[in-house]
Amino acid sequence: MKVERLLQISVALLAALGSLFLAFGQGGNSALPLLATIGAFLSVYLTDIKGWITLNRNLANFAALIAVVFSFFDFWDDGSSKLVAIAKLLIYLQVVLLFQPKTTRVYWHLAVLSLLQVVVAAALDFGVTFGLMLIPYMFTALTTLCLFFVYRETLRVDPELKAAHDAVENRPLFSFMAKKPVESNDSTVVSAPVISLSGQLPGNLASVFSSGKMFAQVLKMGFFTLCATVVLFYCFPRFDQGQLSQSFGGEFGATTGFKDQISLNDMGHILQSDRFVMRVRLSDLNTGTIIDTEYEPYFRGTSLSTYFPNSKTWIVGNLKNYQVSELKPPPLKTNLVRQQIATNQSIHFDRTNEGVLLFSIYPAYSSLNTARDIVDNQTLGIVSMATDAQAQVRQPDQYEMLVPWNPFGADADLIPCRHPLRDRQFHHYVQNDLTQVPLDKEFADTLFHGLTETADELVADIPVNGDEKPTQFAIAQRMERHFVLDGNYTYSLHVPVHMKNTRLDPIEDFVVNHRTGHCEFFASALAIMLRTQKIPARVVVGYKGGEFNSVGGYYAVKQKHAHAWVECFLSPDNLPVGISKEDYPNGAWLRLDPTPASRPSPNRKDSGTIFDTFLDWFDYVELAWRDYVVGMNSERQEKDIYKPLTDNLVKPFEGWVSREQWSKFFRDSLASMGIHMSDEWFSGFASIFTMLVLLLLVVIFELIRTLFRRYWTSIKRLFLRWFPSKSHRTGFYFKVEKLLSKAGWQRKESDTPREFITSVIADCKTRGIASEMLSPLSDLTDWYYQIRYGSKDLAPAQQDAISEHLLLIEQQTLAMRKIKR
């Protein structure tokens, strides 16, 4: 196959890979990159092979200008689309170039555009697929550059082909379905000659290409490039990414799917994202065995207590009124598991008044590995990393806490309250903030009239004995069951517009009208219904469950697992039957999850298929990619690379450069000889002893240097006998030239090695000097040509003779230099 055809295919493949990078990076908006990928391969057939569609340079420049203007409006549309607009512009320009007649200019522009596509895709996509695609892209790029070099060398040495190449720029403005150049009956080509490796191409290039050596060399370069890239990536000091993502407005640096406030009209879209948030591993406290529960764990974020009907929003409330303390050790006789959480550093967690919000099963307790700056707001149930309010600090890359583990029974939904009931501040929070129906009672009856009637009907439906009133626990269970089983509610991320009654509050409209919504609607409705019955309730937001990875033994929590549920406060007198008041002396928070689609689901580990196992492995590899490539910031590099390297390599040798260690060594050594040195900074005896040691070292050094100079020639001869030059090395000839140059013979740049040695032999014969080295010079020159240009190996006798000839020539040239002196 001709070089130019291979170059055309290679460039098309490079352009296609660049478009695929953008396709993966844009996710759902990948139609244009995929079409560009198909167009790259079509251009080889339609433009390069058949010549049916070709764009003149002037027409192509005009089309490129239109593409720039067309993309200009997308670029300034909004901040989040800037990178996408740049990606589209690169694709437009690439398509314009692909359907032009190929010249060195076009090839080079296509290669640069492809590289720019990879750069843009790197800011859009951080997945492992991007990293895996970089490997074939690297090999394709190296192959393309090698073919491009051969192509340019062919043009350089063949004037006819160079003229045909330059004439391509002067084709008609536009041609469609043009006939491909054909050969006449006398086998003469009508069109310009096609570039191939035969003809004027230098023989060494043709040999390299036809024998496959070039592609073998590409594989070698690719392998060493990968190795060098890995070493430089992990060893080269780096700076933190900082606010890089915010400058582009892309997903990098986005916040989590969790929200610390709920706006009922625009929350559904966050539940559709597959963006990774954190990895949670639960293990046994004593054995370290990974725990995979059959029920999905709840990872608490924060609790919301105040609802504003005007903005249809839940907020946390006034956090300044609540005390915050360090995370406490666990109480005795508590069934605990170790919870280890690794966060995605490319997204930012929300902040509280204390610092960065952390997610966890609640309540959480400290372990030996828990950071000291993690604090607990026991009133609101918020765990956070304490930081300065003005500091822009990210969440820790990983943290550990101990959490109770009661996956079954009534205890599973009960969280012990750690506030004394006599605490006035806590009493105000429970009895006012958590029982207040929005605004005053009279207006609330109008605002939530249908919801209140529904709550009253549910309470009246609870069976009781005589005049007894239903317990708060029974009321909470009945209302939860209403949403989950009895109320014909439907879980949906989007409520059709025709089903909404805009004159009603969204929560009221949800309960009495369409009964369709996502978890925020269910949690909001249940919390308000409980409050109408004077039961303290709050909305809790965080994450529920995750995708359990059986390979890594962790839950992969993503934005789509963001969830909302309800907690109601039960005093010790209102605890469910069978629960000991001694275990909950201050009462408990009862967790209620009214969302039908979020009920506990069986684990799929026992029923997993081969495809599930493959997905687990892929997710595990992607996790490693996020941890050790995408998340390899300066702090991670210091902790995972520099510090272990220092501990293992440098610390064992610290004593060798420690002044104290050497001082102790000399003191102990002298003490063993009966010489005791004082602790003063200056000692006359020590000074005399040091000078004597230095004098002895100087004498030893001069003696060794004198002996080495006297016997250097003999040592060198022995060395060359023990380590003779190998047949595949041609360095002996260059040593001959060096020795001859010292004797006055310098090789001209226009002389070949044989011409130079021939002139030296002739000069020696004319002057009648150095006759003994003439034959060795001739032999060494013949052997050099045999190795360098004949690709042959020397016989063993010839290999042994090389060192002897070099010694003889060195002696002759040295004698000539002495005569000249």
UniProtKB/TrEMBL annotation:
Pfam families reported for this sequence: DUF4129, TgpA_N, Transglut_core
Organism domain of life: Bacteria
Domain Transglutaminase-like positions: 511-596
Listed transmembrane segments: 7-24, 30-47, 59-76, 82-99, 106-124, 130-151, 218-239, 681-708
Segments forming a coiled coil: none
Group of enzyme by EC: transferase
The keyword Transmembrane helix appears for this protein: yes
EC number of this enzyme: 2.3.2.13
Keywords: Acyltransferase, Membrane, Transferase, Transmembrane, Transmembrane helix
GO MF assignments: protein-glutamine gamma-glutamyltransferase activity
SMART domains: TGc (SM00460)
Name of this chain's protein: Protein-glutamine gamma-glutamyltransferase
